[in-house]
Amino acid sequence: MSAEAGTGRLVAGRYAVDGVLGRGGMGVVWSATDRVLGRTVALKEVDFPAHLSTEERDALRRRTLREARVAARFEHPCATSVYDVVEEDGRPWLVMERVDARSLQEVVHQHGPLPWATVARIGLDVLGALEAAHTAGIVHRDVKPANVLVGRDCTAHLTDFGIAVTTDDPSITTTGAIIGSPSYMAPERARGEDAGPAADLWSLGATLYTAVEGRLAFERGEPMSTLYAVVTDDPAPVERAGPLEPVLRGLLTKDPAARMDVPAARAALQRALAGSAPGATWTPPDAGDAPPRDAGATLGGGVERFDADDLRALASLLGTVARDARDQARHLAERHRERKERRAARAAAPPSRATPSRATPSGAAAPDAAPRAAAPATPPRAPAPAPPRSPAPSPAPAPARTRRRRFKRRWVVVPVVLVAIAVLAALAGLAALVAAALGAL
């Protein structure tokens, strides 16, 4: 629905649409007025991606309708509240708390990377909302800059629990597929495993990385390639993170069991802020003050669908890579052990065996062994003999021997050829004489 068509519309006979607040991969957020209660609300029109099947659309519709019940189970100052959920034109509409803020995706896209101290404060706010959700048994599963709202005072609110799941309620799943933004999906989700609270912390780490660096930690230009990088590669080196680098590294740990948890992340963010300059603040400029940018840029927030076959192919590829890496590591370890054993054998060998002397036919030591055999303080036992005649030729004459061999072969072949020609000529003359004699007869 366009902004012109949506403005002035009355949804569910109660919510009058005023204008557009934002757009994302899962729909449009409108500004609206609740005519019953007389308050301003945010009205999200959920629009599922076109590449979803009918079954998947129905599953996500039911999941979105459940969002109101899920979000109502906890309250936190940094989590937007859901007031109501209605259906209109076969699509769910979520009635949410109106927050005077812009998405972190929009702020970074329009103004570039944010100061690390500001990102640390945003991280603490989102972390508090996630802790409340996890305590209520809820996993968000879609933490990304588009779902973090940043106010003028840089306070942050986590919103859009559209694909949230509860740990005590069977999730509504599609036929083996996963749906999400690959740049912010935890490795365990990419491997098709269950997403727990640690998956939200990975997504938070990727979100904070984008905010402070102004670019994605994992971006390969194509969704499946990006997902593969999330599972196998390290994030791109940071340039602007400063004291946030340990937090980003801890949150972006591949193994969920070793990943930084909520208390550790909070302590690390607080330590980083404790070292910032007193009074150091940053206020997002107004949207109209930003230079024009590509309106289609999403900073990796686009929603993608990954089939079960794609996930199985990815898992198979990861298994092959892991086996190759193990084989290579085993081969390198064997080579290292062999070299170590050879060095140990050479070190344990007697000196006389390690440096054997060569003798000339007359019994005198070879020139290259004489300096090692004589100690500096021991006088020579005999005058220096004339230069010994070594049976081994020096390196220089080697090409000469090759030339002499070629010379001899050449002069052997040439006489043989000449003799053969002479013999043939003699036989030809003899044949001619015989023919002449027979003709005379």
From TrEMBL:
Segments of skewed composition (Basic and acidic residues): 325-336
Transmembrane segments: 411-438
Residue stretches of biased makeup (Pro residues): 377-398
Domain Protein kinase: start-end pairs: 15-273
Pfam families: Pkinase
InterPro entries registered for this protein in UniProt: Kinase-like_dom_sf, Prot_kinase_dom, Protein_kinase_ATP_BS, Ser/Thr_kinase_AS
Keyword list, A-Z: ATP-binding, Kinase, Membrane, Nucleotide-binding, Serine/threonine-protein kinase, Transferase, Transmembrane, Transmembrane helix
Residues given in the record as ATP binding sites: 44
Enzyme's top EC category: transferase
Xref: Gene3D superfamilies: Phosphorylase Kinase, domain 1, Transferase(Phosphotransferase) domain 1
UniProt region (Disordered), positions on chain: 275-301, 325-403
Compositionally biased residues, Low complexity: 284-297, 346-376
Enzyme Commission numbers on file: 2.7.11.1
Protein name (record): non-specific serine/threonine protein kinase
Organism: Geodermatophilus telluris
